Amino acid sequence: MKKLLLALFWVFSPVVTFAFSSQELVAVLQQPQNIQGDFTQQRFLKALPKPITTSGQFTLLKNKGLLWQMQKPFASDVRVTAKGIMQWNGQQWVENHKVGQSQQIQLFLGLLSGNIDGLSAQFSPELKGTAEHWQLTLTPNSLLMKQIFSHIQLQGDKLVKRIELHETQGDRTVIELQNNQVNQPLPAFVQSALQAN
Predict the structure, then answer these.
(1) Is residue 96 part of a domain?
(2) pLDDT of 32-76, one tens digit each?
(3) Closest-CA residue to 41 (of 68, 13, 78, 9)
(4) In terms of C-beta density within 10 A (0-12 exposed, 13-18 middle, 19 or more buried), how is residue 166 classed?
């Protein structure tokens, strides 16, 4: 789950200039103060004939973090902030050692807040398309990222709509972000989970 959550932070990544410039993409993606929507996640494992599918809602709050609220096949609330990855146990947020911690958290949160230092040392980006429909491919060039991913692909317009994570061992995860709402009031639980951090 750590890989899937952290990948969402790449929506604020800078990219190499092609037909559609990196500066334009970054400017567009950094505009929203918050994004709320639905997600469907499919995990394709080589050992299984059918993908493992989960779904729920997410909130991305600029400079604060991500709240990932899985609803199916079971309920689970996970937040990712500068303090790490934590899970809601029904009464309080507790460290989720199963999800794990790593230097990647700080990297992705740095990108979320506009701190782009270190990206070029981790990935080689390639941007194709236009402002209305673009695709960003991130190919790892650091030893750490090469151990996890073969590449990551993002697609979108004014917002990221699809993320594909291709792992080195052959597994693949596809995340679809739908029904996105920008800069809308946050539910009380979301506010308490993210704005206090």
Answers:
(1) yes
(2) 899 999 999 999 999 999 999 999 999 988 888 888 899 999 999
(3) 68
(4) middle
| Domain-embedded: residue 69 | yes
142 occurs within a structural domain:
yes
Place of tokens 């309920």: 75
CA nearest to 109, candidates 9, 35, 190 = 9
Residue 72 CA to residue 41 CA, distance in Å, equals 10
Residue 170: inside a domain: yes
CA–CA distances in Å: residue 11 to residues 24, 131, 174, 188, 194: 13, 14, 15, 25, 18
**Domain coverage including residue 36:** 22-195
pTM assigned to the model: 0.80
Residue pair 176/71 in contact by the 8 Å Cβ criterion: no
- Identify the CATH number of the domain in which residue 183 sits: 2.50.20.10
Total count of domains within the chain:
1
Question: d(Cα 197, Cα 63) in Å, to the nearest integer?
Answer: 10
